[in-house]
Amino acid sequence: MKKNTGIIDRLLLFTLIPTVFIALYLIFIWSPVERIMGASQKIFYFHVGSAWVAFLAFGVVGYYSVRVLIKPRLQHHINAGISAEIGVLFTTITLITGMIWGKSSWNTWWTWEPRLATTLILWFIYVAYLFVRKMDGSTEKIARLSAVFGIIGAINVPIVFMAIRWWNTKLHPVVFGEGKNQSGGGIEPDMLVALLFSIFTITVLYAFLMRKGIEIEKMRHIVKRAKSKAIEKLAG
Amino acid sequence: MISILKDAWTIASKDLSNEIKTKQTIGMMVIFSSLVVLIFSFAFDPTNNMVKAVIPGLVWLITVFSGILGLNRSFLSEHENDTLTGLRSAPIDPSSIYLGKVLANFILVTAVQLVSIPVLFLLFDYRFFGKVSWFILVVIIGTLGFIIVGTFLAALSANAKNSEMLLPVLLLPLLSPLLIAGVQATRIILENEMIADAASWIRLMAAYDLLFLAACFFLFEFIMEGS
């Protein structure tokens, strides 16, 4: 069992290192420079990749939350928590890169566009989720409460998106795709390759962080149990 | 199902009669919401004509701010005297506790609104042009959604030591779609625009209410379980 997980970890690490370098090469050297936005368009690859991983991570949180409620197991609880932590990290990256991108292409740090606002609210929901996990009490109770909140949060996300979309259509019509040169078929094939590769790289990074995080969290639980056992022994 | 509703009514009437006796929470909520109106009148100059634009938002802000005070009390007071254990061990469905609390909180917040919204209109000298019945409908649907989610999260956060701080942090992001819809619908009705535009927002609010009522109704027993 122990050996088996080690192999997977090493495999992930050894795929991760070369893919990161290839992705960096593809993004900064190989892919063409955008004609209008120039070099600042390069942030697009990181932005889309982390946005995808953020939504993936929160999907994973919802999935494990449901599983905790069906069958309470520590493993599911840990998985959900680590995924939420990584999700918050990547949502933060998405927001920051998005702001930089917005500043250089729309000349404003922030607009109340559906996707931006949804991402921001998503960030708040999952920070709140992490607060629920930090509550004091028995692990079983926290597992149950945080799972319930995880499910409620996941239900909320599509409603938030719809509400904000409607809210903004009052001001201007919904535009599919991000501007003229990014919508669907408008993307350069070389750029698409770089984009897909960077998404793949960040997904591998997510899997790697997830495994490492779970391992650390498990160790924490073992230490906690050993500590309480030692205290009991000393007291008794 | 009938028995769940009956038990819910019992719990709600217990909370309400408790409240009628002491009048502590409701008094605080009324005073607090009036204070929020007062503070807003300093923040946005009421003599300015522009302030008409923020009235729909203020209706919801005072509801949410004063409502959070009441929601905090609804489960904390049970924790203080450990009566929650009594409720939990009672031979009733856990969902009826939830429904009862929703009912009690809804009546409480509506009672506060009956005072605070007229005070808001009065102090800001707001001329009402829209249809009153539609306005009341929007307020009721929005408040119901707020209470449905708020009561559930109050029960959840009551387990924490710092629950007064935790509740708003959990509640406000989840309320965002309801608040967007509520503010838009209120604005359309108060400015007497097309009712058809408001109807789609009201439908969104109703869908939110139903969806979260169903979800909270089924998930509530997981919050009540164990200790």
Automatic annotation (TrEMBL), chain A:
Residues 7-172 form the Cytochrome c assembly protein domain. It comes from Mesobacillus selenatarsenatis (strain DSM 18680 / JCM 14380 / FERM P-15431 / SF-1). The lineage of its organism: Bacteria, Bacillati, Bacillota, Bacilli, Bacillales. Keywords: Cytochrome c-type biogenesis, Lyase, Membrane, Transmembrane, Transmembrane helix. It is a multi-pass membrane protein. Signal peptide: none annotated. This is Heme exporter protein C. The chain crosses the membrane at residues 12-31, 43-66, 78-102, 114-132, 144-167, 191-210. The keyword Lyase applies. One of its GO terms (cellular component) is plasma membrane. It is found in: Membrane. Belongs to the CcmC/CycZ/HelC family. One of its GO terms (biological process) is cytochrome complex assembly. One of its GO terms (molecular function) is heme transmembrane transporter activity.
UniProtKB/TrEMBL annotation, chain B:
The keyword Membrane applies. It holds the Pfam family CcmB. GO terms for cellular component: plasma membrane. The chain crosses the membrane at residues 26-44, 50-71, 102-126, 132-154, 166-189, 201-223. GO terms for biological process: cytochrome c biosynthetic process; cytochrome complex assembly. It is a multi-pass membrane protein. This is Heme exporter protein B. One of its GO terms (molecular function) is heme transmembrane transporter activity.
